[in-house]
Each structure stands twice: as structure tokens, then as C-alpha cells.
Amino acid sequence: MTHIRTWRLCLLILLIVSACKQKKTAEFSVDKIPDPMQHNGYVSNPDHLISDETVSQINGQLRQLDQSGRAQVAVVLLETIGERVPKDVAHDLFRLWQPGDKVKNNGLVVLLVNDQRRIEFETGYGLEGDLPDVVCYRIQQSEMLPSFKQNDLDGGMSKGIAAVIDVLRVPDDSTQVAADNDSTSHAEEVMVRVDSFVKADSAAFANMFGSAGIAADSAVAHNAPYFEDYSPTDTNDYPDNDTDDSIGLGTIILYMFYAFFCTIFVVQTTAAKRRKNNSALFSINIWHKIWLYGAPFILILILVNLFNVRYRWWLLPLVMYGNVMGYMIYRTLVIHAKAAWLVKGNDRHRLYEAMNIANHDIWLVAVFFPLPFLPYYKWHKKRLEKLRYEPYACDGCQQQMTILKKGEKQKALSPVQLTEDKVGSIVYDVWRCKPCNTKKVFGYRSLDTDVEECPSCMAITLVPGKKKVLRRATSSREGEGIRYYECKNCKHTKEEYYAIPKPSSGSSGSSSSSSSSSSSSSSGSWGGGSSGGGGAGSSW
User: Fold this and answer.
1) Which residues, in sequence order, are CB contacts of 445 under 8 Å at separation 6+?
2) DSSP 3-state of 343
3) Among 306-315, 318-327, 427-436, whose mean pLDDT is lowest?
4) Please, are residues 453 and 446 in contact by the beta-carbon 8 Å criterion?
């Protein structure tokens, strides 16, 4: 009995500890971080991780930087953020407070999380040229982390902020020559330490930013204290107008756009998969995909290497255009070869459905390739009209049948057919022979509807309904929602879960926008800048 009581007591204590931990994690919110601008400051230090003297010193330095119009910096020091990721918290803080000018977007958020031993920089769009990721990382590693590793948060923050200001400072050429010399001397001293660290830790640095970042940071080469000027002296370094264009980043981006276009507008598999009972006049296989995605690249290599054709920037788009047009001509020939077989069976309805699915987006092909597909598109529309509306012959008396109008048609349809016609999934035509009163009913699937086949009654009457968000998406995880379906024929219901993608780094949700607006209006000091998603993080 005593053993059971002891076990229950241990379980109770475990549950209490777990509940306290969950409560502590749930209590953290970016909205609860004190906004230093409410007290005309730039440093938020709610857990007193650094001294008041250091806070006052940094506030003074950042105020001068802000008044110069160069940048607006928010510094936040927190003991813990629970299970949150420091990079996500820094990004959310930027969206909430919006430091930096609204036009220049020259804001910066510096976040220190003590229990995770992590320092994060989040830069605005306007500072990505002056403070690229590589420079942020250098400042953290050379100026801040050595002090942090000795539990000197005051010293590390002071040195790091001073280094940031040195990078961003714009000297006054007319009145501060002496100050410029001092600033240059200090900046050069800092950069020597930065470079020495990078050389000593080049392997880790290269793993994070690549070897190009070690060699030079050309994006901020205009900042004299940190970078030397470069001026080419040999005009032979520049290629003349008769040399070949290089296959570089622009070519890769163009090829990615081409692959995206082919995937969305050429590789069409969804329509055929939804309609299993119809004849497929054309289906994509692996060889077709190799043709679409690989042929332009292979052809360019052959032209350049075997036939010594000079590569120009317009050559690849021309090859891509010809490749897609050749593929579409081949596709059209295959469709008509299979359609000719269907015509032999005199199955007009089956041929109409197959042709309609196979050429569903032929109008889009005609837009990009007017010749030869614009005349073909017009001919295709006339052919479909003939297949559907040319009078049928009665099977009994061989007399010509007539199509019924809407009111008479509805009387001839079954309840299931009436429901399908009403929801727009299938459009029905009813033909009647007047002499013998024989009827023929043909249904034509709508290709632009999202109505599905009901698993209960097998009618195409399962209509999608309202959506409900179960968990909103955040910058660190996807959201989840549920969509309800109802069959308009048998009232069968279905629930389908779907994922909500993470918000993009440049966008801001409604809650963050409203919070940042209220914060800005209450203090009137943050400038309304936007985060560019750049920056860097380091651990110690």
C-alpha cells in the first residue's frame, strides 16, 4: 500500500513539473516583450542580462545612429524564449516593431537568447547591401562571442554594437576630418580582428557562407573603413562585343522558369486522372518529360561543342521555344491518330469527351504558338460543335432525332442526372425521335468544376463546402485546416484535411500588422521598415 502511494506521489509531482514547463513555454509571446521605444530607447532588457550602464551607453550610440538617418537598430536581450527558434523570434519582432525608415527599410534587430546561448541579427531590405550575412557573421564571431564565452554579456554587446555602427557610419567630409581618421583607425583595427578570426576559422566560415565570402564582400565595398577601393586598370579584362556570352546565373534562372512553365502548362495529368472512364488520347510518360526538360540543354551542348556555334543569350530561349512547339505538334499528331481509331466505331460521344480532355488547354497553346495552333484551335472548336450537335439517327426507325430544350430535357432525366446537371458536373443533352418517341441521353463532363464523385452513391455530386482552420501557419511551422464535402444526391458527407503553407518572410499577418501598428502609434518612433529576412546567427 505504501509502495502504491509513493508511486502515485511521484506521478503527481511529475505531472505538476510537466504542467509548469508547458505553462512557461505557452506564456512566452513576442507581444509581451517590452518595447523600448515607449521609453525613447532602443534596448529591451527585461531580464537584466546587462547592466543599466551598458544599456544607457548603447542607447546613446543607437540614438545618434538613428538621428543620422543611417539605420534604426532594436536590441533585445532575453533569458529564454521557451521552445521557440531565435531566428523566428527575431523575424517576428521585426514584423511587430518595424524598425527602420518605411522607404529606406534600414532597420536591424539584434536578439540575444541567454539559455540557448544564441545571438541573432535580422536586417531590413535597405541594410542587406551594407550588412550582408557574411559581415553580420564576422561581427558576431570576432567581436561578440569571445566575450560571451567568458560570461561577459556587457562587453560582447558593447563591442558588437560598436562594430555595427562602424560599418554603417557615414563620415562628414567637411567638418569631421579628425573624427574620420579616428573612426577609420578604429574600424581598421576591428576589421583586422575580424579577418584574423575568419582565417583562423575559415573551415566553419566556408561551410556557412562559402569560400566567396572569405575572399571579399563586394556588396559593401563602398564602405571605406572596412574595404579597399578597387579600380580596374587593364581594359583587356573586359570582353569585347565579339566574344561569346557566358552560361551563368541568368541561364539557370531562365531554365528554371522554362521548367516551371512546362510543368504547369504542358504536363497535364490531373484532368485525365479525374476521369478514369474516358479514353485517354495522350498520356505523358518518362520519355516525354526527358524531351521537355532535357532536350534544350542537350541541344545547346551539341551546338556549342560539336558544331562550334557561338553561344548568345537569345540562343537558349529560341531553342526552348522550338522544343515546346515541336513537342506540341507531336502531341497533336498522336491525338488525331488515336481519334481516327475512335471514329471507326462511330462513337461520337466518346470521341467528343476524349478530344475535349486532350485539347482542354489548346487555347493557351495557341496564345504562345499562333502558328500553327491558332488555326487548329478554331478548327477544333468547330469539330467539337459538330460532334455534339449534329443530329443523331434513331436506332429503331432511322429517322433524324431532335435535341430537347431545357424544360423538356429535365423531364427526361433521372433524379441523379438532374442533380448532376444542377451542380454543373455533367451537362446532359437529350435527343428524341418524334415518330417512335425514342430518346438518347448523353452526358458531357465539365472540365472546370471541382465537384467530385461521391463514394456512396457514385454520382458526381460531391460538392466542396466551407473550410475551417484548425491551426494557423506560423513562420516556423505549417498550419492545418479541414474542408467539408456534401453529396447533393445522397447527402453523404466527407472531411478532408489540408496543409496551410508558412507565410513568406516578406509578408506580414493581420495580427502582426495590427500589433506593430499599435506599437508604432503609441511611441511614434519606429519607422515602419520591413524585414528582408537577411542576417546571421551564432552560438557560443
Assistant:
1) 275, 278, 353, 425, 426, 460
2) helix
3) 306-315
4) no
